[in-house]
Amino acid sequence: MDPAIVTLAIIGAAIVLFIWEIIPLALTAMLAVVAFTLTGVLSSSEAFASFSSSTVVLVVALFVLGGALFETGMAARAGNVITRFADGQHQLIAAIMLVAGITSGFLSNTGTAAVLIPVVIGIAIRTGLNHRNLLMPLAFASSMGGNLSLIGSTSNLLGDTILRRTFEGTGFSFFSFAMVGLPILLLGMCYMIFFGHRFKEDRDDTTSEVTRNPEPKSLYRQYGSLIVLALTVLGMLLSDTIGLPIHLIAVIGALFVILIRVIDEKEVYRNIDLRTIFILAGLLPMSAALQKSGAGEMIANHVVGWLGGDPSPFILLNVLFLLTAFLSQFMSNTAAVGLMAPIGGTIAVSIGADPMAVIMAVVIGGSCAFLTPLATSANTMILGVGNYRFSDFAKAGWPLMIIAYLVSIALLPLFFPFYP
Length: 420
Hints:
This protein is mainly alpha-helical. The chain has one domain (3-415). Helix content is 72%, strand content 0%. The model is unreliable at 204-208 (pLDDT under 50).
């Protein structure tokens, strides 16, 4: 059987199980990994390579660094600072999303979420608010904030590279993405503040590890956790200059925070969410399978083929935005952009249009990772911590998708004309 069809069947079955949750989500993810191996879509080494992938290593290291903030009481202190300036749930959500959005404009959304998750939990403990009402706005803001600058996301840099090298365009300026990304973030904040944050207290939160309120530790441990985290974040920002990958810098920070006894071994293990790790490691092969089997390209080619030989640039922009947004729910947004940007750019050039708007639409669409916990590492990280269900993301995220879509199709032709 065609590997692309097999891949789509496995992913389809996994999505059904994710939505129904008749078995644990981590088990569903690992069953998909085994299915890819047994059907020959991926080799065993390819299927299980995700456990040693840089993404998983980065997430584990950030769990340790975030856990140090939480265990020492520094997260609670940081939460106290935020609550002094924000009174009530609406203001807190606004503050959290603003901080997360701005931070992720210059740091990865995974790093942003990992740093702020313990702070948000500290705020929930201090205020008595439902932590689920605060964590999902955090994750969504970290995705939207990536569109505030050229370095806000790997996808932004990839789109810029494709535009420059493949289509010999002038490329995007440092804040080109902000012309569309900032309105999306601001409108997304308004939606989450007034409508998208409400989760009922219908699940047992009292026994969850994340709702513990640890006793404050010594000032040495508190400020030690903060200083190591700050230096690690700085190192990640300067990774190209330093010459080290960000996941290695994060691991060095995690090891250092243990070596200087800011956090002990027992606390380390307590703050590494194995459920999240297994889900993340189980989901990454889906992206690899979509690429290797050609399933992602098959979907793209079929949809683009429906446009005909001489499509309207505006229709092309709409279709590519929605298609990339769909693919990014189940594969990395970088992979989705890498697949769709050359296709969209080529079609735009063939009809005499500037490919800049189309490629921008692809990049923005790829960042609309709101509908599933598979879509970004930040979503996956809050899944277990927030005790969310798979369907919670779709319920809260689909209006955000509509907001991003409407803003993009309205502003992209204005700022990036098809025929300049």
